[in-house]
C-alpha cells in the first residue's frame, strides 16, 4: 500500500531532477539511441523510410511508441514500489542505508566515467518479446521486455535511481522518482516517433559524441553518490527550502 503524507517538497525536488536526467541519459546510452529508429519502425509495423516520409506512418508509430512507454513505465513503477518499500522496512537504519546507497551510486558513476570497468555491467542482455510488431498490445509487451532486460545501458543508471528511491524510505516518494525516470526515458522515444525526420541530424550528432555523453552521466551519478555519502544531498534540499519557502506548501 502506498503511504500517505507529504509527497512533493523541497527535499524531493533534487532527487526528481536527478531521476529525469538519468532517464534522458539512459535514452542516450550506446545500446539504446542507435537502435531507436528501427525499433520504433518495427513496433509500428512500418519501415524506417516510411517513418521518415509518411505522416500516416509516423502517427501509427507514435501510437505504438506511447504503448511502449506505458509498458516500460509499468515495470519501473513496480520496481519503485518494491525498492522504496524495502527502504521503508530499513527505516531504523536509514542513515546507514543512505550512506550505502551513496557508495553504490558512486561506484556506478565511476564505471561510466571510465575510472574502472565492472565486468558484468558490460554484458548486454535483451529480453525477447517475440514477433510483436505492428500492434498497440505488442508495443506494450515490448516495453515490458525492454525495461526488464536491456542492460548494461539501463542497468547501472537504473540501479542508481533505485538506490535513491530506496533511500527515501517512503513508497510513494520512491515511486515518484521512478515515474520521473520513466518520463526521462520515455519522452525522447515519443519525440523521435513524432518528429523523426527533423531529429535525424540531432541523433547523428549524439551518436558521434556517445562517449562524452556516457562520461557526463557517470559524473552526474558520482556527484549524487558523493552528496548522499556526505549528507550534502539533504543539505541541498534544506537550502532549497530556505531559498524558496513556497516549496514547503507542496504535497
TrEMBL record:
InterPro entries: Cyt_c_assmbl_TM_dom (IPR003834), Cytochrome_c-biogenesis_DsbD (IPR051790)
Locations listed in the record: Membrane
Transmembrane segments: 12-40, 61-84, 96-116, 137-166, 178-199, 219-241
Membrane topology of this protein: Multi-pass membrane protein
Pfam families linked to this entry: DsbD_TM (PF02683)
Top-level taxon of origin: Bacteria
Keywords: Cytochrome c-type biogenesis, Membrane, Transmembrane, Transmembrane helix
Domain Cytochrome C biogenesis protein transmembrane: 16-229
Keyword presence, Transmembrane helix: yes
Protein family according to the UniProt entry: Belongs to the DsbD family.
PANTHER family associated with the record: CYTOCHROME C-TYPE BIOGENESIS PROTEIN HI_1454-RELATED (PTHR31272)
Protein name: Cytochrome c biogenesis CcdA family protein
Amino acid at each position: 500500500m502506498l503511504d500517505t503524507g507529504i509527497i512533493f517538497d523541497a527535499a524531493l525536488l533534487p532527487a526528481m531532477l536527478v531521476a529525469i536526467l538519468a532517464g534522458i541519459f539512459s535514452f542516450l546510452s550506446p545500446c539504446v539511441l542507435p537502435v531507436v529508429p528501427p525499433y520504433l519502425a518495427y513496433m509500428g509495423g512500418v519501415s524506417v523510410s516510411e517513418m521518415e516520409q509518411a505522416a500516416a506512418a509516423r502517427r501509427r508509430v507514435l501510437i505504438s511508441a506511447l504503448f511502449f512507454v506505458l509498458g516500460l513505465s509499468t515495470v519501473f513503477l513496480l520496481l519503485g514500489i518494491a525498492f522504496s518499500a524495502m527502504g521503508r522496512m530499513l527505516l531504523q537504519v536509514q542513515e546507514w542505508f543512505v550512506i550505502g546507497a551513496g557508495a553504490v551510486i558512486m561506484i556506478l558513476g565511476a564505471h561510466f566515467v571510465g575510472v574502472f570497468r565492472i565486468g558484468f555491467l558490460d554484458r548486454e542482455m535483451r529480453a525477447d518479446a517475440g514477433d510483436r510488431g505492428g500492434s498497440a498490445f505488442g508495443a506494450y509487451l515490448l516495453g515490458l521486455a525492454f525495461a526488464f532486460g536491456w542492460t548494461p545501458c539501463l542497468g547501472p543508471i537504473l540501479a542508481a535511481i533505485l538506490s535513491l528511491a530506496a533511500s527515501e524510505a517512503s513508497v510513494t516518494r520512491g515511486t515518484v522518482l521512478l515515474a520521473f525516470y520513466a518520463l526521462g526515458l520515455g519522452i525522447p522515444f515519443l519525440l523521435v516517433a513524432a518528429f523523426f525526420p527533423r531529429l535525424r541530424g540531432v541523433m547523428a550528432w549524439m551518436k558521434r559524441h556517445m562517449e562524452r555523453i556516457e562520461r557526463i552521466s557517470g559524473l552526474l551519478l558520482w556527484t549524487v553518490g558523493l552528496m548522499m555519502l556526505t549528507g550534502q544531498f539533504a543539505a541541498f534540499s534544506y537550502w532549497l527550502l530556505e531559498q524558496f519557502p513556497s516549496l514547503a506548501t507542496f504535497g
